[in-house]
């Protein structure tokens, strides 16, 4: 059975999908309709369900799996589903919502292994203990959360996948520039976004939490370091701890991007570059994946609304 | 005996002053000279000491009180001392350096009283306990530190004086806008700059500390709240605590001014306005105090280098 | 009988409201419908009237009072009326449009009294005469106009209400900072927005006038001072008059906000802060008034689209 | 006898010049010296007079003509005079200061003629009368003042010269774009900078006046129109008058350049372009005049510190 | 027979128009409709065609001429066609698409003559040969292309019309400022936008080409000069050639507007001003042409969304 | 024999150095002195030579090697030489200027090898031929030029060293993100700054050339590709060539940094990041190399004047 984004425009299909959003609105003829957003592992797509009955409105809730029959249509440049029929997936059918969540393209075990390997590059003992402790306390969330609500790595597991991808760059950079302090770079890198496990609500229908909105993941992260220091008896005023916090606090690179201090450590500056690079590659790649050779991609909002060109030749 | 800024241009004088800075440089004729900055309670003024001997260079160190004879001169629009003679203040003379430090114009007891009064407007019990605890722990520094290294309230006691001045505005505003939450506004106000007791080195020759440079007073303040919560057993995830932290974190008003989150509470927004207003009045007043009626003041760098006009009529 | 914003979502109601806007559009089925905006003292709300006849289009004009039966609905986060029936209010019913205009929450007499009291703080005789004369010439408009077309204090009487609210802050500030020149601050404050009585068209369906668009209220205000000087025989080149004009011209604080000169008087700078503070409190309060505890408000466009949080605890 | 800028570097000379500035400073050897700025019609140049006696300091005052003997030297890329001897010009010598003031390169009569010709393109009778009246009231200042304190056309007569130069462009543009309203364009153009006759102090050692600093020439100009309307009995609320004021108020083009309103008339927008164009040509030409072919000019501060290249080929 | 913009609101009409755009969408009732954009020489206007059949969708394609019967309607301030009937123009009817394309208001021969005249002001022989050669190679495109995809001179022939309009200003300016190098100014002016003949796809349904998107017309222009130098044997490192390229590369005036170098030649700076001036006049005039006296025009997006006022009096 | 930066403050020394700058100025006592800048492989340092004779001025020219005796002094935070004696290096002494030029820390052969290796990652044949041809034509300059006049890699050989350092990052990134087109990334990377061999004058006393100032290295590079295409018979409109040019043109990342087009290829965007990262590491490292543990470095101007902290612990 095919996936949402494998269907060609104009083709009819019948597939299982997850309801990601379901807004009930009133049509111009006065009758209610449901504006759906369907999702499977290939991505998500909108579709309108006209003249919905009260019963249908109650039945087709966010988080339910449905069997959807329809055509793939096009509305102002974006693909859309023209719904022909819709029913809830029944027992015996693939009705587990987690089957339909977009996921990263790498096994969890492999990710964990890479993170664990990286810990050995943290030679400074205080930083090593702090990073291990925080990782172990937030392990489950760290390996299942997205890296962001939208934009880059906004999928289940995206947070740890983004971290591993950055670690690969960091390892190469540590070899190229041996003057770098690996404890600060690797330690700061692993922790830099872990505050998102508290800033965001989780992998499914991700929202900002109350604490996330009021304090932000950068300050939350800094607090985690303090708590752990207190738990395992490390003086938070020691140079390595203050510098580790600095790396985390400064990793957005500029005040206007939300860092309360500008980078004043080489490693803090470099972490900002690596983070930026990986997020940028991820955003561009995810639109180019849906772009044919010789065409331009959809616009990417956080990259000044630029679209990108998919060349005809490879390599 | 008169003060530095009471002497008129061209007049000769002999007064006791503190050496605030003493840079040894080489003159174009190859001989060393000392570029002094002298200070008393009326302000500070530069003066060059030509052809200094090795002995004089060793004797006239920063922090020493000297008896200075000279003329008040003018160099490119700024007052300057033309040094005629210089000797260390001896025993029996007023040689205590603290006599020459610029101070705020209000008694400490009065300041303390106003701060204590304000605590009664913090009705929310968690916030009340947190604020009292932090105040008591940093009491000495809070009442002696300046509010900044330069710019506004950059004098001994400036930090608490600035806080009291803001409290007066806050009280008036609480009466005008009864919808404001006084626990958040007053609590946040008292704490908003207390992180400077750790960010700065003290009242004399104020510098940024290591922690101050690496973390900044906004994050330091947020950490103080966490530590105190842990000490007195308050859950830091309670709404009042999270909101108190938000007020402190957001009080610079914009990300580019160093707040890691923008104000999302009415009280955080208002605190930013009050802080700004008091700092602005202080900066303008301190230049207008040295400006004659009908003239323009010196330029104020943090206010877009504007100069201000001193009107001829009063009230 | 309840008001528009007292009805809960989903409830049916029947109430008298004013038609604030009535745009005739063509539905996708080709038939005309009316996009209404209804208003009473609690605020205003949209509602669509489908398949309108020619007669209905003629009858339901802006400015008419109607009896409206419907449900309170929700459209993309904003409350909306689902219209069940609509008829003009008849004689004997509350059909006076002025009953439905949103008004400030303070009696006109009280406002006038406060303004008159403030005049006694203008000790400089020229400024005092100018302010009294301008006030008396624009009295009616001053007490009925809004302070703006939208954003803050955009309601009948908003202009004088905003002025009085600012006067309260100014009085407190004059006590806290005795160095302020009260003639310039109070005089400038009372006049600062009075040019809006010429820039705007009035309290009902407020628009910019021709002069308002071409010259702006800041220059209009400056002209008013000149005219009055000429009428009552004051030399417009006298220092107090020039400074009063400066305060008015500079009160937007920065060139990019429309002031032709930057503040070069302490009082001009302070007036800008007070104006900003009162407008900000007003905008935030008016969205928080419609926000339940523990929730976030609607976004405020002039405040960088921020939403604000309504705490669960009071005071 | 040659002029200051006709002397080659390294050459000795003896010429009459005006003292434009004479700052008495103290040298590092403790003795006073005078930092002179000399001027003749070719430009102005600095020179230091070492070990000045009290008598010399009193004698060589700003505004006096002196006979100067010296070498042309070079200090960090700028020409400088190395003073050999200096004495006051005596009776019978060319000691009239006005002989040494930099002047525009056009006769006053020619300028007046061009301005008078342009008046005939103001067909709208109200605008015509207003412009004529203002011109006649400020005639003397208009033909002797500079157009600015520094930057462009900062020389005696520069104001009217700049106006005539702009008029030439305006006439060409009126022919190219017949849709333009010549009354508004020509009327606004002639008046646009006339407020400088009040904003600035005059042709010699030009400073901002009190009114200039507090109100700025844009608002001063708008006031002039009001005064004249009142004097000659024209209703200031008539469309042509309001639009003429708009053209003047908006001619800086953007709020951040000091216009209280943005251009909302085609003619206001065009006037801004013409003003900009003439000022830019004037600034670049005045540095290129001192630049040899194949070399780069001095940097121009108001043009983003750019330097300009003088080509080797002409036309 | 009248034109689209000659019909008054509410009037019924029957006229021939070109289909400029035809988007097929699904109405809320599930049926397809066509969102048309019709065009004739007076401008273009939208209209919805409800419940379109498959056959109609195939028939009414972009580029076809149709006979349109309808009313002129108004939708949210913009004119709109309410379609009553629609059929393809038949043989014997005016069905040539080029009849309906908006065109400039000047004959091609006249334009060519003016361009040819201007060539005589390019005295420098290398520049003269380069400009003539490039012109002759791109002659057809140069006289038929628009000057832009939208905004200013976005009509057939707009590129050469814009060039001639700028030439008129340049000629006047060369007389006013004789210091200008006419070879560089006129040569650069004629070439400045000729790269658009490669950046854009043509006069009808103008799009950016692949090269246009990837390199931009500024670099394309610079390459043209190189190619021509190589073809006619001119050394591209000669001063006149390098400067001609500079003028073309720098004519956007600032890096952020897409010039890879800032103007460092007086002529490059001036060309930027002339370009700007003509584009601005064109944009404002085209909205004022559709604005009644005493009213405000539509907003112009590239001019900070300003609207412009159409005065009641002429000249 | 020690180097300039190996001498401690206050120590006396006698070493051979190159004269990098020698400005003759007049001291306040009227006598000429020479402001020297001396250089050896450890860096460069200023020193004043008082009361210079005509003969000395002629002898001590830029580019000469001298034997310098003096003390290491400190002037306003920067190290300075206090000159005791100075004489030209004689025959038999190390008087070859190239011995004193600051050089990169890598052998040329190693650099060449790395560049040659990288060519094998350019699989697209047209790009491969273009890159090889340009490299071979500019080989000597490519391996001896600096990467910039100042800021980063501003030393002999800096251009190729910077390129190799970037290649190392690029290789790592190509492995991490296999979706990248290595022909475009590696080809664009090798060429991206090669235009500097024409923009700059060479390794010693580097200046911008005439073409460099007028066209800039980005456009020069684009021209090189065109010339080479023409020489080796490749159609410059082929997709790979246009894209290669795009990568080079867009590598500054934003218009305001001098790219005439924004990146629209993933590889162009990535190249910008790699360039930025390597330049940043180079700038920070070169100030941290001169900073002791626990101290702050000098400020780096292109990095918002930030200083960086040198941690006490390594790795």
UniProtKB/TrEMBL annotation, chains A, B, C, D, E, F:
A single Gene Ontology biological process assigned to it is: rRNA 3'-end processing
* GO terms for MF: exonuclease activity; nucleic acid binding
Report the InterPro entries cross-referenced here: HD/PDEase_dom, HD_domain, NA-bd_OB_tRNA, YhaM_exoribonuc/phosphodiest
Q: Is Nuclease one of the keywords UniProt gives this record?
A: yes
Query: Which superkingdom does the taxonomy of this entry point to?
Result: Bacteria
List UniProt keywords, sorted A-Z: Exonuclease, Hydrolase, Nuclease
**Residue ranges constituting the HD domain according to the UniProt record:** 159-280
Which Pfam families does UniProt cross-reference here? HD, tRNA_anti-codon
What protein name is recorded for this chain?
3'-5' exoribonuclease
Q: Give the species this sequence originates from.
A: Facklamia miroungae
């Amino acid at each position: 059975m095919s996936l949402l984004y494998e269907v060609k425009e104009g083709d009819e299909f019948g597939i299982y999908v997850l309801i990601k959003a379901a807004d009930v609105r009133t049509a111009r003829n006065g009758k209610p309709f449901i504006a759906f957003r369907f999702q499977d592992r290939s991505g998500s797509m909108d579709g309108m369900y006209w003249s919905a009955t009260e019963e249908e409105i109650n039945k087709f809730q966010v988080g339910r799996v449905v069997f959807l029959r329809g055509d793939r249509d096009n509305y102002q440049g974006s693909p859309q589903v023209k719904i022909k029929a819709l029913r809830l997936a029944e027992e015996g059918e693939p009705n587990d919502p987690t089957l339909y969540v977009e996921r990263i393209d790498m096994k969890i075990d492999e990710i964990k292994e890479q993170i664990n390997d990286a810990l050995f590059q943290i030679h400074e003992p205080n930083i090593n203990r702090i990073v291990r402790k925080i990782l172990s306390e937030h392990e489950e969330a760290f390996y299942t959360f997205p890296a962001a609500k939208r934009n880059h790595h906004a999928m289940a597991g995206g947070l740890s996948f983004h971290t591993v991808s950055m670690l690969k760059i960091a390892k190469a950079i540590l070899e190229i520039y041996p003057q770098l302090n690996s404890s600060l770079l690797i330690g700061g890198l692993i922790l830099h976004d872990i505050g998102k496990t508290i800033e965001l609500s989780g992998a499914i229908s991700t929202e900002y939490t109350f604490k996330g909105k009021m304090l932000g993941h950068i300050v939350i992260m800094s607090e985690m370091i303090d708590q752990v220091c207190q738990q395992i008896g490390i003086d938070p005023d020691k140079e390595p701890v203050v510098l580790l916090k600095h790396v985390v606090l400064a990793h957005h690179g500029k005040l206007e991007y939300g860092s309360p201090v500008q980078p004043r450590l080489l490693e803090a500056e470099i972490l900002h570059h690596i983070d930026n690079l990986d997020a940028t590659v991820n955003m561009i790649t995810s639109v180019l994946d849906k772009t044919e050779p010789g065409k331009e991609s959809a616009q990417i909002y956080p990259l000044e609304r630029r679209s990108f060109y998919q060349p005809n030749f490879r390599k």
